[in-house]
Design a protein that fits this description.
This protein is of the alpha+beta class and 390 residues long. Among the domains are: 82 residues, conserved putative lor/sdh protein from methanococcus maripaludis s2 fold (Beta Barrel), CATH 2.40.420.20; 106 residues, Beta Barrel (Elongation Factor Tu (Ef-tu), domain 3), CATH 2.40.30. It contains four helices and 20 strands. It has a six-stranded antiparallel barrel with strand order 2-9-12-11-10-13. A four-stranded antiparallel beta sheet has the order 6-5-3-8, with no helix packed on it. Strands 19-1-20 form a three-stranded mixed beta sheet, with no helix packed on it. Helix 2 runs antiparallel to helix 3. The N and C termini lie far apart (98 Å).
Amino acid sequence: MVCPSTYRFYSLNRLSAGAALALLLTFGVQGALAADAPAAAPPPAVTVAKPVFKEVTEWDEYTGRFVAQQRVDVRARVSGYLQEVLLSEGHMVEEGQVLFQLDPEPMRAEVARAEAKAARAATALRVAELEFERGERLASSKAMSRETMEERRANRDAAKADVEAARAELRLARLNLEYTEVRAPISGLASDVRVDRGNLISGGSADSTVLTTILKLDPIELEIEASESEFLRYSRLESAGTRQSSRDIANPVEAMLIDEEEWAHKGQMTFVDNEIDVNTATMRGRATFPNPGQVLLPGMFARVRLLGAGAHKAVLVPEEAIVSDQARKLVMVVGKDNIIEARPVVLGPVIDALRLIREGLTPEDTIVVNGVQRAHPRKPVTPQEAAAPR
């Protein structure tokens, strides 16, 4: 028979052993689970670098269209039948070159009539002068009244006026005879002939028949339209003394055609309009380009860049470092403890394959240049230094 106290001691020892076994099993399982659990992932690796900080000259790019410096619709100054076409269509013509010949016979008849009228007027003037001279002699001897003398003076003056009028008509008739030869008003490239030989030509008015069109191509002009905000920026730069207005100096302009890869055509600004267009909210400007080979033709489109600002220090970054957030542009900046900050920036033009940053970055900032998709705002990264973009 077991003593009660001995039984209690035995039971307590048995319970302690069971609890110890349970604790041992619990901690053993947890240790095994902890050993099997994966370690926490490190922050994503990104490539970082300092922005490029150097002296640059800014160019602002636009799209423009070439227009002729001079465009003339050739019309006859007199009416008549088109007798001969001397124009070689689509070729260069020189100022003063005869392009069309109207029938001159009606104008020659007008010249002959005007010459006869002028001769008759000259004869009438001689008769009036003789009558006036005779009247002066009679008036000196009191043989003619004062009224008769004044009448002869008036007849003489009227005859002089008739002579001048007849001479003017003769000059006009001779001019009209010359105008039967339609000459090139400017040197340039002619279009096609709009009227066939033998047709009646209307001339001498705004509704006169257009015979052909001549364009002056050397030099040629390029029309540019800048937005209101761009025009205001130019005005601010002028006020700050950074860039002179194109109204005051001929700022340089460069153009590139659709099949070119270099800014091969060099020109200069020659005109800036005096108001903003209310329909398009743009300011119109014009640049002039030399065009000795007539490669540039009116109607051609071209990419054009205009000097935007003088030489100055600027921050530039690769295009890959720029992130779009709807209308905003962001650059991922590595801050304290390698925490990412999404920095809003204001972009400028592309210079040497790098994007100019007008506002938002400093040369001392460290930016993510590769792996921006792994860089999230307010999250850490593992930066890996890279050479500054060139």
